[in-house]
Amino acid sequence: MTGRHGVGAAGRKVRTALGVCYLVAGIGKCVPSWESTEQRLGQALKANRNTPLEGPTRWLHERHEGTNAFVAASMVGAGAALLSDDGRVVDAALVGTLPMLGSFATLLHRALPPVVPVDAAFGAAAVWVLRQRRLAAKASRSA
Question: A Pfam family name for this chain (predicted)?
Answer without folding.
Answer: DUF6041
